[in-house]
Write a structure and sequence with these properties.
The structure is a single chain. The chain is mainly alpha-helical. Helices cover 69% and strands 0% of the residues. It has helices at 13-33, 52-55, 62-80, 83-105, 108-118, 123-132, 153-187, 191-208, 222-238, 242-250, 252-271, 279-311, 317-344, 351-373, 388-398. The longest helix has 35 residues, at 153-187. The protein is globular, with a radius of gyration of 22 Å. It starts with 12 loop residues before the first helix and ends in an 8-residue tail after the last helix.
Protein backbone atom coordinates (compact mmCIF):
# COMPACT_ATOMS: atom_id res chain seq x y z
CA UNK A 1 0.00 0.00 0.00
CA UNK A 2 1.66 3.20 -1.20
CA UNK A 3 1.18 6.62 0.40
CA UNK A 4 -1.52 8.82 -1.09
CA UNK A 5 0.54 11.98 -0.74
CA UNK A 6 4.05 12.94 0.15
CA UNK A 7 2.78 13.05 3.73
CA UNK A 8 2.56 9.27 3.55
CA UNK A 9 6.31 9.13 4.22
CA UNK A 10 6.09 11.28 7.34
CA UNK A 11 5.60 9.79 10.76
CA UNK A 12 2.32 11.00 12.16
CA UNK A 13 3.48 11.61 15.69
CA UNK A 14 0.09 12.96 16.68
CA UNK A 15 -1.50 9.55 16.05
CA UNK A 16 0.93 8.01 18.52
CA UNK A 17 -0.28 10.55 21.08
CA UNK A 18 -3.93 9.83 20.24
CA UNK A 19 -3.33 6.13 20.82
CA UNK A 20 -1.46 6.77 24.08
CA UNK A 21 -4.13 9.08 25.47
CA UNK A 22 -6.94 6.76 24.35
CA UNK A 23 -5.43 3.90 26.33
CA UNK A 24 -5.16 6.09 29.41
CA UNK A 25 -8.85 6.93 28.98
CA UNK A 26 -9.44 3.17 28.82
CA UNK A 27 -7.83 2.68 32.23
CA UNK A 28 -10.07 5.36 33.75
CA UNK A 29 -13.10 3.84 32.00
CA UNK A 30 -12.42 0.37 33.38
CA UNK A 31 -12.02 1.78 36.88
CA UNK A 32 -15.38 3.47 36.32
CA UNK A 33 -16.95 0.14 35.35
CA UNK A 34 -16.50 -0.96 38.95
CA UNK A 35 -18.82 1.84 40.13
CA UNK A 36 -21.64 1.95 37.57
CA UNK A 37 -24.79 -0.15 37.37
CA UNK A 38 -23.70 -1.80 34.11
CA UNK A 39 -22.56 -5.41 34.31
CA UNK A 40 -18.85 -6.09 34.94
CA UNK A 41 -16.62 -8.75 36.49
CA UNK A 42 -16.68 -7.31 40.02
CA UNK A 43 -18.85 -4.52 41.39
CA UNK A 44 -18.48 -1.97 44.15
CA UNK A 45 -21.08 -2.03 46.95
CA UNK A 46 -21.48 1.66 46.09
CA UNK A 47 -22.22 1.00 42.40
CA UNK A 48 -25.00 3.12 40.92
CA UNK A 49 -26.03 5.39 38.08
CA UNK A 50 -24.24 8.53 39.29
CA UNK A 51 -20.95 8.08 37.36
CA UNK A 52 -22.64 6.90 34.16
CA UNK A 53 -22.93 10.31 32.43
CA UNK A 54 -19.15 10.68 32.79
CA UNK A 55 -18.62 7.19 31.38
CA UNK A 56 -20.75 8.18 28.38
CA UNK A 57 -18.23 10.92 27.60
CA UNK A 58 -15.95 8.27 26.08
CA UNK A 59 -18.01 5.12 25.54
CA UNK A 60 -19.46 6.15 22.13
CA UNK A 61 -16.05 6.69 20.48
CA UNK A 62 -13.21 5.17 22.52
CA UNK A 63 -12.92 1.79 20.82
CA UNK A 64 -13.74 3.05 17.34
CA UNK A 65 -10.92 5.57 17.73
CA UNK A 66 -8.47 2.83 18.72
CA UNK A 67 -9.39 0.73 15.67
CA UNK A 68 -9.20 3.80 13.42
CA UNK A 69 -5.68 4.61 14.64
CA UNK A 70 -4.66 0.95 14.41
CA UNK A 71 -5.78 0.92 10.78
CA UNK A 72 -3.66 4.00 10.06
CA UNK A 73 -0.62 2.37 11.67
CA UNK A 74 -1.24 -0.80 9.65
CA UNK A 75 -1.22 1.26 6.45
CA UNK A 76 2.31 2.41 7.16
CA UNK A 77 3.48 -1.08 8.10
CA UNK A 78 2.13 -2.42 4.82
CA UNK A 79 3.89 0.43 3.03
CA UNK A 80 7.21 -0.92 4.33
CA UNK A 81 6.65 -4.66 3.88
CA UNK A 82 4.83 -7.23 1.77
CA UNK A 83 1.41 -8.51 2.93
CA UNK A 84 2.78 -11.93 3.86
CA UNK A 85 5.58 -10.52 5.99
CA UNK A 86 3.11 -8.06 7.51
CA UNK A 87 0.81 -10.91 8.58
CA UNK A 88 3.69 -12.92 10.05
CA UNK A 89 4.96 -9.94 12.03
CA UNK A 90 1.55 -8.91 13.32
CA UNK A 91 0.64 -12.48 14.21
CA UNK A 92 3.74 -12.78 16.38
CA UNK A 93 3.16 -9.38 18.03
CA UNK A 94 -0.56 -9.99 18.68
CA UNK A 95 -1.24 -13.72 19.05
CA UNK A 96 1.57 -14.54 21.46
CA UNK A 97 0.48 -11.83 23.97
CA UNK A 98 -3.15 -12.90 23.48
CA UNK A 99 -2.43 -16.54 24.32
CA UNK A 100 -0.14 -15.60 27.20
CA UNK A 101 -2.73 -13.16 28.48
CA UNK A 102 -5.51 -15.75 28.39
CA UNK A 103 -3.37 -18.27 30.29
CA UNK A 104 -1.61 -15.99 32.80
CA UNK A 105 -2.89 -12.41 32.94
CA UNK A 106 -6.67 -12.78 32.55
CA UNK A 107 -7.58 -15.76 34.84
CA UNK A 108 -7.71 -13.74 38.10
CA UNK A 109 -10.58 -11.75 36.60
CA UNK A 110 -13.05 -14.63 36.09
CA UNK A 111 -11.87 -16.23 39.34
CA UNK A 112 -12.77 -13.17 41.38
CA UNK A 113 -15.96 -12.80 39.34
CA UNK A 114 -17.21 -16.22 40.45
CA UNK A 115 -15.95 -15.60 43.98
CA UNK A 116 -18.05 -12.44 44.25
CA UNK A 117 -21.08 -13.42 42.21
CA UNK A 118 -21.38 -17.14 42.96
CA UNK A 119 -19.55 -17.52 46.27
CA UNK A 120 -16.87 -19.82 44.81
CA UNK A 121 -14.54 -20.79 47.66
CA UNK A 122 -12.15 -23.46 46.34
CA UNK A 123 -9.24 -21.13 45.66
CA UNK A 124 -7.37 -19.98 42.56
CA UNK A 125 -5.49 -23.22 41.87
CA UNK A 126 -8.69 -25.25 41.84
CA UNK A 127 -10.33 -22.60 39.65
CA UNK A 128 -7.44 -22.80 37.15
CA UNK A 129 -8.01 -26.53 36.73
CA UNK A 130 -11.59 -25.76 35.72
CA UNK A 131 -10.52 -22.76 33.63
CA UNK A 132 -8.07 -24.74 31.50
CA UNK A 133 -10.54 -27.52 30.68
CA UNK A 134 -13.29 -25.08 29.70
CA UNK A 135 -15.65 -25.71 32.61
CA UNK A 136 -19.11 -24.37 31.82
CA UNK A 137 -20.86 -24.63 35.16
CA UNK A 138 -20.39 -21.08 36.45
CA UNK A 139 -23.83 -19.76 35.60
CA UNK A 140 -25.85 -16.73 36.65
CA UNK A 141 -27.96 -15.04 33.98
CA UNK A 142 -25.89 -17.01 31.50
CA UNK A 143 -22.82 -19.17 31.90
CA UNK A 144 -19.24 -17.94 32.04
CA UNK A 145 -17.27 -19.08 29.00
CA UNK A 146 -13.83 -20.40 29.91
CA UNK A 147 -11.05 -19.90 28.96
CA UNK A 148 -11.71 -16.25 28.19
CA UNK A 149 -9.85 -13.28 26.77
CA UNK A 150 -11.96 -10.67 28.61
CA UNK A 151 -10.50 -7.21 27.82
CA UNK A 152 -7.99 -8.76 25.39
CA UNK A 153 -10.81 -9.25 22.88
CA UNK A 154 -9.46 -6.08 21.26
CA UNK A 155 -6.22 -7.91 20.41
CA UNK A 156 -8.08 -10.83 18.81
CA UNK A 157 -10.22 -8.51 16.71
CA UNK A 158 -7.22 -6.42 15.70
CA UNK A 159 -5.43 -9.53 14.48
CA UNK A 160 -8.41 -10.60 12.36
CA UNK A 161 -8.74 -7.11 10.89
CA UNK A 162 -5.06 -7.04 9.95
CA UNK A 163 -5.64 -10.29 8.06
CA UNK A 164 -8.53 -8.67 6.19
CA UNK A 165 -6.43 -5.62 5.31
CA UNK A 166 -3.50 -7.77 4.17
CA UNK A 167 -5.82 -9.94 2.05
CA UNK A 168 -7.38 -6.86 0.43
CA UNK A 169 -3.94 -5.48 -0.37
CA UNK A 170 -2.73 -8.79 -1.80
CA UNK A 171 -5.87 -9.37 -3.88
CA UNK A 172 -6.48 -5.83 -5.15
CA UNK A 173 -2.89 -4.71 -5.49
CA UNK A 174 -1.29 -1.44 -4.47
CA UNK A 175 -2.61 0.48 -7.48
CA UNK A 176 -6.28 -0.26 -6.76
CA UNK A 177 -5.84 0.35 -3.03
CA UNK A 178 -4.13 3.65 -3.79
CA UNK A 179 -6.93 4.68 -6.13
CA UNK A 180 -9.54 3.81 -3.49
CA UNK A 181 -7.59 5.81 -0.92
CA UNK A 182 -7.52 8.85 -3.24
CA UNK A 183 -11.27 8.61 -3.88
CA UNK A 184 -11.96 8.29 -0.15
CA UNK A 185 -9.83 11.33 0.62
CA UNK A 186 -11.55 13.30 -2.14
CA UNK A 187 -15.00 12.48 -0.77
CA UNK A 188 -14.21 13.33 2.85
CA UNK A 189 -14.20 17.09 2.57
CA UNK A 190 -16.50 19.83 3.87
CA UNK A 191 -19.63 18.60 5.61
CA UNK A 192 -19.07 15.09 4.25
CA UNK A 193 -16.07 14.61 6.54
CA UNK A 194 -18.34 14.76 9.58
CA UNK A 195 -21.57 13.37 8.15
CA UNK A 196 -20.77 10.43 5.86
CA UNK A 197 -18.86 8.18 8.30
CA UNK A 198 -21.39 9.00 11.03
CA UNK A 199 -24.25 8.14 8.66
CA UNK A 200 -22.67 4.80 7.80
CA UNK A 201 -22.23 3.99 11.49
CA UNK A 202 -25.83 5.02 12.14
CA UNK A 203 -27.16 2.63 9.50
CA UNK A 204 -25.10 -0.18 11.04
CA UNK A 205 -26.39 0.62 14.53
CA UNK A 206 -30.02 0.88 13.40
CA UNK A 207 -29.95 -2.37 11.42
CA UNK A 208 -27.72 -4.60 13.56
CA UNK A 209 -27.51 -3.42 17.19
CA UNK A 210 -30.70 -5.18 18.29
CA UNK A 211 -30.17 -8.29 16.17
CA UNK A 212 -26.57 -8.90 17.25
CA UNK A 213 -25.92 -7.69 20.81
CA UNK A 214 -22.27 -7.15 21.70
CA UNK A 215 -20.53 -10.38 22.79
CA UNK A 216 -16.80 -9.79 22.09
CA UNK A 217 -16.73 -13.49 21.21
CA UNK A 218 -15.49 -12.87 17.61
CA UNK A 219 -17.61 -15.46 15.80
CA UNK A 220 -21.08 -14.02 16.50
CA UNK A 221 -20.32 -10.34 17.14
CA UNK A 222 -21.61 -8.99 13.83
CA UNK A 223 -22.71 -5.55 15.01
CA UNK A 224 -19.29 -4.83 16.49
CA UNK A 225 -17.53 -6.17 13.39
CA UNK A 226 -19.70 -3.98 11.16
CA UNK A 227 -18.64 -1.00 13.29
CA UNK A 228 -14.98 -1.62 14.06
CA UNK A 229 -13.76 -3.22 10.83
CA UNK A 230 -14.89 -0.26 8.66
CA UNK A 231 -13.24 2.11 11.16
CA UNK A 232 -10.03 0.11 10.89
CA UNK A 233 -10.14 0.09 7.10
CA UNK A 234 -11.02 3.79 6.94
CA UNK A 235 -7.97 4.55 9.09
CA UNK A 236 -5.83 2.56 6.67
CA UNK A 237 -7.28 4.37 3.65
CA UNK A 238 -6.85 7.94 4.92
CA UNK A 239 -3.58 7.39 6.77
CA UNK A 240 -1.36 8.72 4.01
CA UNK A 241 -3.61 11.60 2.99
CA UNK A 242 -2.31 14.86 4.40
CA UNK A 243 -5.46 16.77 3.26
CA UNK A 244 -7.74 14.58 5.39
CA UNK A 245 -5.70 15.23 8.52
CA UNK A 246 -5.59 18.94 7.68
CA UNK A 247 -9.37 19.00 7.32
CA UNK A 248 -9.77 17.28 10.69
CA UNK A 249 -7.55 19.93 12.22
CA UNK A 250 -9.58 22.64 10.54
CA UNK A 251 -12.95 21.44 11.88
CA UNK A 252 -11.72 20.34 15.29
CA UNK A 253 -13.73 22.93 17.24
CA UNK A 254 -16.90 22.22 15.28
CA UNK A 255 -16.41 18.48 15.78
CA UNK A 256 -15.84 18.98 19.50
CA UNK A 257 -19.02 21.04 19.80
CA UNK A 258 -21.06 18.39 17.98
CA UNK A 259 -19.56 15.64 20.14
CA UNK A 260 -20.38 17.47 23.37
CA UNK A 261 -23.91 18.29 22.21
CA UNK A 262 -24.37 14.65 21.25
CA UNK A 263 -23.10 13.54 24.64
CA UNK A 264 -25.63 15.82 26.38
CA UNK A 265 -28.44 14.40 24.25
CA UNK A 266 -27.34 10.82 25.01
CA UNK A 267 -27.24 11.51 28.75
CA UNK A 268 -30.73 13.04 28.58
CA UNK A 269 -31.97 10.05 26.58
CA UNK A 270 -30.69 7.53 29.11
CA UNK A 271 -32.20 9.54 31.95
CA UNK A 272 -35.64 9.80 30.30
CA UNK A 273 -38.47 7.54 31.60
CA UNK A 274 -38.86 5.45 28.46
CA UNK A 275 -41.53 3.25 29.98
CA UNK A 276 -43.94 6.19 29.75
CA UNK A 277 -43.71 6.31 25.96
CA UNK A 278 -45.67 4.22 23.49
CA UNK A 279 -44.08 1.70 21.16
CA UNK A 280 -44.80 4.00 18.21
CA UNK A 281 -43.00 6.90 19.88
CA UNK A 282 -40.01 4.72 20.70
CA UNK A 283 -39.93 3.42 17.11
CA UNK A 284 -39.38 7.02 15.98
CA UNK A 285 -36.96 8.14 18.66
CA UNK A 286 -34.67 5.11 18.86
CA UNK A 287 -33.34 5.50 15.27
CA UNK A 288 -32.95 9.25 15.82
CA UNK A 289 -30.92 8.71 18.96
CA UNK A 290 -28.79 6.10 17.26
CA UNK A 291 -27.95 8.70 14.63
CA UNK A 292 -27.10 11.16 17.41
CA UNK A 293 -24.92 8.50 19.05
CA UNK A 294 -22.86 7.81 15.93
CA UNK A 295 -22.56 11.51 15.03
CA UNK A 296 -21.25 12.08 18.56
CA UNK A 297 -18.82 9.17 18.19
CA UNK A 298 -17.38 10.15 14.82
CA UNK A 299 -17.22 13.85 15.70
CA UNK A 300 -15.24 12.96 18.83
CA UNK A 301 -12.79 10.95 16.70
CA UNK A 302 -12.36 13.86 14.28
CA UNK A 303 -11.90 16.28 17.18
CA UNK A 304 -9.33 14.03 18.87
CA UNK A 305 -7.29 13.69 15.68
CA UNK A 306 -7.67 17.36 14.82
CA UNK A 307 -6.57 18.68 18.21
CA UNK A 308 -3.74 16.16 18.38
CA UNK A 309 -2.45 17.18 14.95
CA UNK A 310 -2.60 20.82 16.00
CA UNK A 311 -0.91 20.47 19.38
CA UNK A 312 0.83 17.09 19.64
CA UNK A 313 2.47 16.46 16.26
CA UNK A 314 5.96 16.22 17.70
CA UNK A 315 8.50 13.66 18.79
CA UNK A 316 10.36 13.37 22.06
CA UNK A 317 11.51 10.92 24.74
CA UNK A 318 8.03 10.83 26.33
CA UNK A 319 6.36 9.84 23.05
CA UNK A 320 8.91 7.13 22.33
CA UNK A 321 8.69 5.73 25.87
CA UNK A 322 4.89 5.75 26.05
CA UNK A 323 4.46 4.35 22.53
CA UNK A 324 6.52 1.33 23.57
CA UNK A 325 4.83 1.01 26.99
CA UNK A 326 1.19 1.36 26.08
CA UNK A 327 0.56 -2.21 24.86
CA UNK A 328 2.01 -3.98 27.95
CA UNK A 329 0.14 -1.48 30.13
CA UNK A 330 -3.08 -2.33 28.28
CA UNK A 331 -2.51 -6.07 28.68
CA UNK A 332 -2.16 -5.97 32.46
CA UNK A 333 -4.26 -2.99 33.56
CA UNK A 334 -7.70 -4.61 33.91
CA UNK A 335 -6.44 -7.53 35.97
CA UNK A 336 -4.79 -5.06 38.34
CA UNK A 337 -8.07 -3.14 38.65
CA UNK A 338 -10.12 -6.26 39.39
CA UNK A 339 -7.64 -7.70 41.89
CA UNK A 340 -7.17 -4.42 43.76
CA UNK A 341 -10.88 -3.59 43.77
CA UNK A 342 -11.60 -6.97 45.35
CA UNK A 343 -8.79 -6.52 47.87
CA UNK A 344 -9.99 -3.04 48.87
CA UNK A 345 -13.53 -4.14 49.77
CA UNK A 346 -12.82 -5.03 53.42
CA UNK A 347 -11.36 -1.54 53.92
CA UNK A 348 -14.72 0.15 53.24
CA UNK A 349 -13.06 3.14 51.61
CA UNK A 350 -15.08 6.11 50.41
CA UNK A 351 -15.85 5.59 46.69
CA UNK A 352 -13.98 8.72 45.57
CA UNK A 353 -10.86 7.84 47.54
CA UNK A 354 -11.02 4.23 46.40
CA UNK A 355 -11.43 5.18 42.73
CA UNK A 356 -8.46 7.55 42.90
CA UNK A 357 -6.34 4.85 44.53
CA UNK A 358 -7.37 2.33 41.88
CA UNK A 359 -6.38 4.67 39.04
CA UNK A 360 -3.05 5.67 40.60
CA UNK A 361 -2.07 2.14 41.64
CA UNK A 362 -3.20 0.64 38.33
CA UNK A 363 -1.06 3.14 36.40
CA UNK A 364 1.98 2.70 38.63
CA UNK A 365 1.61 -1.08 38.75
CA UNK A 366 1.23 -1.31 34.98
CA UNK A 367 4.30 0.81 34.31
CA UNK A 368 6.28 -1.07 36.96
CA UNK A 369 5.49 -4.27 35.08
CA UNK A 370 6.52 -2.64 31.81
CA UNK A 371 9.83 -1.52 33.33
CA UNK A 372 10.46 -5.11 34.39
CA UNK A 373 9.35 -6.77 31.18
CA UNK A 374 11.31 -4.52 28.83
CA UNK A 375 14.53 -5.58 30.57
CA UNK A 376 13.84 -9.32 30.16
CA UNK A 377 14.48 -10.57 26.60
CA UNK A 378 12.39 -13.71 27.13
CA UNK A 379 9.40 -11.73 28.45
CA UNK A 380 9.28 -9.00 25.82
CA UNK A 381 7.43 -11.03 23.13
CA UNK A 382 4.85 -12.14 25.72
CA UNK A 383 3.78 -8.51 26.13
CA UNK A 384 3.97 -7.53 22.46
CA UNK A 385 7.40 -5.89 22.60
CA UNK A 386 9.93 -6.33 19.82
CA UNK A 387 13.38 -7.76 20.65
CA UNK A 388 15.59 -5.06 22.18
CA UNK A 389 18.10 -5.07 19.33
CA UNK A 390 15.40 -4.50 16.70
CA UNK A 391 13.74 -1.83 18.85
CA UNK A 392 17.04 0.05 19.11
CA UNK A 393 17.55 -0.17 15.35
CA UNK A 394 14.03 1.11 14.67
CA UNK A 395 14.42 4.04 17.05
CA UNK A 396 17.75 4.95 15.52
CA UNK A 397 16.27 4.74 12.03
CA UNK A 398 13.14 6.75 12.78
CA UNK A 399 14.42 9.39 15.20
CA UNK A 400 14.42 12.70 13.42
CA UNK A 401 13.56 11.22 10.02
CA UNK A 402 9.78 11.40 10.21
CA UNK A 403 8.96 7.85 9.31
CA UNK A 404 5.43 6.51 9.60
CA UNK A 405 4.08 4.66 12.64
CA UNK A 406 5.10 1.05 13.13
Amino acid sequence: MQPTTSAGNQRLYFLDWVRILAFFVLIAYHVGMYYVSWGWHVKSPHAGTGPEPFMLLSSPWRLSLLFFVAGAASHFMLHKTAPGAFVRRRSLRLLLPLLFGMLVIVPPQPWLEVVEKLGYADGFVAFMRLYLVGYGGFCQDGCLILPTWNHLWFVAYLWVYTLVLAACTALLGNARIEALARRTAAILKGWKLLVLPALFLAVVRILLADRFPSTHALVDDWFNHATYLPMFLLGALVAGSCPVWERMEGVRWIALGIALAGWAAIVAWYAAPHHEHSAQTMAIWVPIMRCVYTLCAWSAIVAACGFARRHLDRDGPARRYLTDAVFPVYIVHQTLIVVMAHAFKPLNLAPGVEALLLMVLTATGSFALYETVRRLPWARPLFGLAPRARTARLQAATHGQGLAPR
